[in-house]
Design brief:
It comes from Paenibacillus cucumis. With about 950 residues, this protein is an alpha+beta fold. It has a nine-stranded antiparallel beta sheet, with helices on one face.
C-alpha cells in the first residue's frame, strides 16, 4: 500500500479501545464486548469491503469473548489467521509504571504465545492510553522485533494553539518521532496527536461528511510529517461502524485528491516509514508529559487506592521472585516438572488487574472489589506452587551423617530466591512431634498426650556446627494434615514451636539447611556468650553500620557510620486535603499542610535480641474530618478540579499512627512499618525524609532502569504538585553520599526542593471520593476508611547507589524468605522425590547448601531480574539489566550442567551463542541468557 507520491492518503483504522472495566464493573462491559464482537463477525462475513479491525493490541479480548461465545471460536479464529482481525502483541493494555519490569515482559510474552497458533501477530508497539510510557520501551520492543510504538500520552508534539514549532521548544513538532531508550535502541514513535478517536463515526451523508472531513483533514495535517494521515475509527467501548465502506466512498467522491483507505497498522506504519523526513525529532527515555501544565499526567493514580498497589506488589514479587525461581530450581534438580500452565494461569489472573483503569485505582468501587479477589486467587496459586516446589527440593537434600545434628534434630531449609546473597531474620513454625489419626475418632486424647510432652531445650545449628542465637517459642498442639499423592488425606495432631533467628549469607538463588537440635547445659552456656550485634540505649539502636535515634516527635535521626553523614527528622508525617479525584490530587487553595513535627510521641522498646531491635512510636493526631459541603456540590456539578474552591471542615477525627522501626544486625537499612485507622475523608498522608543534600535531580527505580529525573519540572508546569512514579525505591545523592527510601507497593513520591536540601515525600494514603474524568461517578470506597498498614525502608549510602549495594538492598527488601521443614511431608513426596522421568539435569541427592546461579555482584551496576524456564525450549532463562551508562562485567557460574549458553531476548528465543561465562553488558542494556540443560 506504500504511497511513493505526495498524494495524501487517509488511513482509517477501525478499532475499539476496550477497557475491560472502568466506569462500569467488568461484567457490564463484558456484555457490551460480546455484542460488539458478534456484530464485528457478522460484518466481516457480510461485507468484504469492511477489510480490517484492530483488536486493541490485547489478546485477552479473545478470551473474554469466547468465555461467553465458545461456539464462535472457529469464526473468530479464521479472521485472525486471515489478518482481517489484527491480534496482539500484548495480553492486556497495562499501566507501564505501576506494573513491574518482569510483569511488562510477561504481558508481551503471553500475548505473543496467545497469537502463535494463528501464525500471525500484530507487531505494533501499542500504548494507546498508558498514563505515561516507560523509558526502556524501545529496547523491549526492539528485542521483540517490533520497530514502532503507537502511544497517546507522554509527549507534547506541538506548541500553543496547535502551532507547529521548533522541536527544541517542544519535544517533537510532528506526531512522528524517533523514540530512543537509554541504551540507544530506537523505534519509530507515532503519537495520537488528535487522540485515538479522530476518525470515529464518519458521516455517509455528503453534506455532513464535508464538514467532518474539512475539520479532521486539516487537524491531522498539522501534525503529520508525511502525506499519510492516521484516523482512528473508534473510541472507548465504541461499537463498530458497519457503514464505514459507504462513508469512505462518500469521502473519496468529495475529496478526489485524497486517497481514503480502510487500513491497518502494518500497512500504515510501512507507508509512513518510507516517507518520514530525515529531520524527525529524537525523544529519549521516559514519556511522562513533563512539558505540559502538569494537570493531565494522571500520575496521582499511583496513590489512588494504595491497597491495590500493595496487593499487586505482593503478587508480582511472589510470582517472579519466588515461584518462578523455585520452580526452575526444582526442574534443574530433576525433582519436579516446571508448571508452565499453572504459572501462566497465575500470571494471567494477576495481569487481569493490570489494565490502566484497573491497577491505577481509577474505576468504580465494584471494579476494585473484584480486583481484590483476583489478587487473592493469583496469590493462592503462587503460594501453592512455592510450597510444592520448595518441598520437592527439600526432600531431596542429603542430611545423612552430619555430626553437628543429633538423630532427633528437626531439620529445615531456608531458600533465598533473590538475586543477591543476603542475611535476614527467619521465622518458621516447626513440628517437633506429631501423631496421625483416622478421620472420625475424637483426637482430644491424642492432643492432650502431645501437650504433656516436656520439650527439650533447642538450639539452631548449621551443618558446620555454628550456633545461631534464636528465640524458640512453644506453640502447643495444633491440627494439621497431609495430602499424599497415592492415598486419602492424612490428618494429624502436632506439637509446634516457632523459631526466630538471623540466617547469615544465604547464597543468592540457592538455599542453606539448618537444624533445631536438642542440647545440654554445656552447649547452652556456649550460646549464651554470643556477641551482641545490635545495641540499644534509651531511644537509640545501633549496629555496625547505622545508629538510629527515635526522637520525641516519633521521627528518627540516622547516622551512617560508613560515611559519617547524619540525617535528621526522617519520617515526619504530613497531611493535606484533597479535592481532586482518583486521577488527580488537588490540595485546597491556600491550605497549609499539617505535620507531626511538633507532636510528642509515646515511645517504647518492643523487641531486642542480639540480631535485631524494634522500637515503637505512637502519635495521637487529629486532622480535619473531610472536605466541606461545597465540595459535594462541585463534584455534582462537574466543576473542573482546577477551579474548585472547597476547603476542609473544622471538625476533626483522630489519626493515631503507630510506627515501628526495626534495625537488624549487619543491615544497611532501617525497616519501617506504619499503621493507622483512617477515619478522615478527602485527604493525603505522606512520610517526609529530608536529606540535607543539595542537588537538582534525583533517581527513581522504574522499568528496567533507575531513571534520572529533574527535581524542578519544565517551565510549562503550573501544577503545584510534582508527584512521580516509582517502583522499588527513590533516592537523592550529591555524588558522595545519598539517601534512599525503598518501599512495598508505595508507587508515588515527590521531591520537595527546600533551602536545606531535597526532601523525599512518599505517599502513604490518598483518600478520594469520585472517579473523575468524563462524568460523575461516586467512589466512596476510594476514601480507604479503616485500618491501614504500609511498609518501607530507609537506606543511607556512600558513593554510587548501585556499587554501594543500596540498590541491591532495595530490590531484595520486599522478597520473602521461603522456609521448609525437611521430612514434614514424607507421605506426600515419597514418590516425587525420585528424578522425574525424562527430565533434563535430574539428580537424586542435593547438598545441604546450594546455589544454582552465581554471578559476580560486588561493586556491580548490574541488577538481577529473573530466573525461570522457557516454555518452548525447556532451557533455563536468566535476566539482568545494567543500571549505569558504563559497561559492566557479568561473570556467571551455574550450579547445574548445561550443554550451551546463548544470548536470548524478552521473548526467550535463541539468538546467538555465548562462548564463555563472562561478558560485558553495555550501558542500560537488558540482557537475557539461555542455558540448555544436559
Amino acid at each position: 500500500m506504500t504511497n511513493t507520491t505526495n498524494q495524501k492518503t487517509a488511513h482509517l483504522i477501525s478499532h475499539t479501545h476496550w477497557d475491560r472495566e472502568w466506569y462500569m464493573p467488568y461484567e457490564h462491559h463484558h456484555v457490551l464486548l460480546v455484542e460488539l464482537m458478534d456484530k464485528l463477525l457478522d460484518t466481516l462475513d457480510r461485507d468484504p469491503e469492511y477489510r480490517y479491525f484492530h483488536l486493541d493490541g490485547q489478546t485477552i479480548i479473545r478470551e473474554d469473548y469466547l468465555q461467553v461465545r465458545p461456539d464462535q471460536q472457529e469464526r473468530l479464529d479464521r479472521y485472525i489467521r486471515e489478518g482481517r482481525i489484527q491480534f496482539g502483541p500484548w495480553y492486556v493494555l497495562q499501566d507501564e509504571f505501576l506494573t513491574s519490569s518482569e510483569a511488562n515482559l510477561r504481558n508481551l510474552l503471553i500475548g505473543h504465545r496467545d497469537a502463535k497458533p494463528f501464525g500471525i501477530i500484530s507487531k505494533t508497539g501499542y500504548f494507546p492510553d498508558s498514563f505515561g510510557n516507560m523509558g526502556q520501551a524501545p529496547q523491549i520492543l526492539e528485542q521483540a522485533d517490533i520497530q514502532n510504538a503507537i502511544f497517546g500520552r507522554g509527549v507534547k508534539p506541538t506548541g500553543f494553539n496547535n502551532a507547529v514549532v521548533d522541536a527544541e521548544a517542544y519535544e517533537s513538532p510532528y506526531s512522528e518521532m524517533i523514540w530512543r531508550s537509554p541504551d540507544g535502541s530506537e523505534v519509530l514513535g507515532i503519537l495520537f496527536a488528535n487522540w485515538y478517536c479522530n476518525g470515529m463515526e464518519v458521516p455517509v451523508d455528503p453534506e455532513k461528511a464535508r464538514v467532518y472531513w474539512d475539520k479532521n483533514l486539516q487537524e491531522a495535517e498539522k501534525f503529520a510529517s508525511t502525506p499519510h494521515l492516521l484516523f482512528m475509527n473508534g473510541c472507548d467501548h465504541q461499537p463498530i461502524q458497519t457503514d464505514l465502506p459507504e462513508a469512505l466512498r462518500t469521502a473519496s467522491e468529495l475529496y478526489p485528491e485524497v486517497k481514503f483507505v480502510h487500513s491497518n497498522f502494518d500497512d500504515y506504519i510501512a507507508a509512513v516509514s518510507q516517507q518520514v523526513p530525515d529531520h524527525l525529532a529524537t525523544i529519549e527515555g521516559e514519556l511522562r508529559s513533563q512539558h505540559t501544565d502538569g494537570w493531565g499526567t494522571l500520575v496521582n493514580t499511583a496513590s489512588a487506592r494504595i491497597y491495590l498497589k500493595q496487593l499487586n506488589q505482593q503478587g508480582q514479587t511472589l510470582l517472579e521472585k519466588v515461584a518462578e525461581p523455585l520452580a526452575a530450581m526444582a526442574y534443574v534438580a530433576g525433582v519436579k516438572e516446571y508448571p508452565h500452565h499453572l504459572l501462566t494461569h497465575a500470571w494471567k489472573m494477576l495481569m487481569q488487574n493490570h489494565p490502566h483503569d484497573s491497577i491505577c485505582g481509577c474505576s468504580v468501587d465494584e471494579v476494585h472489589r473484584e480486583m481484590v479477589t483476583r489478587f487473592a486467587k493469583s496469590r493462592q496459586l503462587a503460594e501453592k506452587l512455592v510450597s510444592q516446589t520448595s518441598q520437592a527440593i527439600a526432600e531431596c537434600i542429603d542430611v545423612q551423617n552430619i555430626e553437628a545434628w543429633a538423630e532427633d534434630a528437626v531439620l529445615f531449609t531456608v531458600f533465598n530466591t533473590a538475586g543477591w546473597m543476603r542475611s535476614g531474620i527467619i521465622e518458621k513454625e516447626l513440628i517437633v512431634d506429631k501423631s496421625f489419626f483416622p478421620e472420625g475418632p475424637n483426637p482430644q486424647a491424642l492432643a492432650r498426650k502431645l501437650e504433656e510432652v516436656v520439650l527439650p531445650t533447642y538450639q539452631v545449628i548449621d551443618a558446620e556446627g555454628n550456633i545461631y542465637v534464636a528465640e524458640i517459642l512453644d506453640l502447643g498442639v495444633h491440627f494439621g494434615y497431609e495430602l499424599p499423592k497415592d492415598r486419602f488425606r492424612q490428618p494429624y495432631m502436632a506439637r509446634k514451636v516457632k523459631v526466630t533467628f538471623q540466617a547469615k549469607n544465604v547464597p543468592a538463588l540457592g538455599y542453606q539447611t539448618y537444624g533445631l537440635v536438642p542440647v545440654g547445659e554445656k552447649e547452652e552456656r556456649q550460646a549464651a556468650g554470643v556477641e551482641v550485634n545490635v545495641e540499644i540505649e534509651a531511644n537509640m539502636m545501633e549496629n555496625e553500620y547505622l545508629r538510629v535515634r527515635v526522637e520525641q516527635n516519633g521521627a528518627i535521626t540516622l547516622l551512617d557510620k560508613r560515611s559519617g553523614t547524619e540525617y535528621h527528622g526522617l519520617n515526619v508525617y504530613e497531611n493535606t486535603g484533597d479535592i481532586g479525584n482518583e486521577y488527580v490530587y488537588r490540595q485546597p487553595e491556600g491550605e497549609q499542610a499539617l505535620s507531626t513535627k511538633q507532636l510528642k510521641a509515646e515511645l517504647r522498646l518492643v523487641e531486642h535480641s542480639p540480631y535485631h531491635a524494634v522500637m515503637e512510636s505512637v502519635l495521637r493526631w487529629n486532622i480535619p474530618a473531610g472536605a466541606d459541603e461545597l465540595f459535594e456540590q462541585e463534584k455534582r456539578y462537574m466543576v473542573p478540579f482546577t477551579e474548585r474552591k472547597a476547603q476542609r471542615v473544622q471538625d476533626t477525627v483522630p489519626l493515631n499512627i503507630t510506627t515501628t522501626y526495626t534495625l537488624e544486625a549487619g543491615s544497611n537499612m532501617v525497616k519501617v512499618k506504619t499503621e493507622f485507622n483512617n477515619q478522615a475523608k478527602d485527604h493525603r498522608l505522606r512520610a517526609l525524609f529530608p536529606s540535607g543534600l543539595v542537588t537538582d535531580h534525583h533517581y527513581a527505580d522504574s522499568i528496567f532502569e533507575v531513571a534520572k529525573r529533574p527535581n524542578i519540572p519544565a517551565k510549562e508546569w503550573v501544577n503545584p504538585s510534582n508527584a512521580q512514579h516509582q517502583q522499588a525505591f527513590v533516592h537523592v545523592t550529591d555524588g558522595s553520599t545519598g539517601l534512599m527510601v525503598a518501599n512495598k507497593g508505595l508507587n508515588e513520591y515527590e521531591i520537595l526542593q527546600e533551602n536545606a536540601g531535597s526532601t523525599i515525600a512518599v505517599t502513604l494514603l490518598r483518600a478520594s471520593s469520585e472517579l473523575g474524568d468524563w462524568g460523575v461517578f461516586d467512589t466512596p470506597e476510594a476514601q480507604c476508611l479503616g485500618p491501614q498498614a504500609v511498609e518501607y525502608a530507609i537506606i543511607p549510602f556512600a558513593g554510587d547507589a548501585a556499587k554501594s549495594g543500596a540498590c541491591a538492598s532495595a530490590y531484595t527488601y520486599p522478597i520473602p524468605w521461603t522456609t521448609v521443614q525437611l521430612g514434614e511431608l514424607a507421605h506426600t513426596y515419597e514418590k516425587e522425590a525420585q528424578p522425574v522421568h525424562g527430565m533434563k539435569g535430574g539428580q537424586r541427592k542435593l547438598p545441604l547448601s546450594k546455589q544454582w546461579l552465581d554471578w559476580q555482584a560486588e561493586n556491580s551496576t548490574l541488577a538481577f531480574s529473573a530466573l525461570k524456564i522457557a516454555e518452548e525450549t525447556g532451557d533455563v532463562i536468566a535476566r539482568w539489566f545494567n543500571l549505569s551508562a558504563d559497561p559492566a562485567d557479568l561473570h556467571v557460574q551455574t550450579g547445574f550442567e548445561c550443554v550451551s549458553t546463548y544470548e536470548s531476548d524478552v521473548l526467550e528465543r535463541v539468538k546467538g551463542a555465548l562462548e564463555n561465562n563472562h561478558r560485558t553488558v553495555a550501558g542500560y542494556k537488558i540482557v537475557t541468557h539461555g542455558y540448555e540443560l544436559l
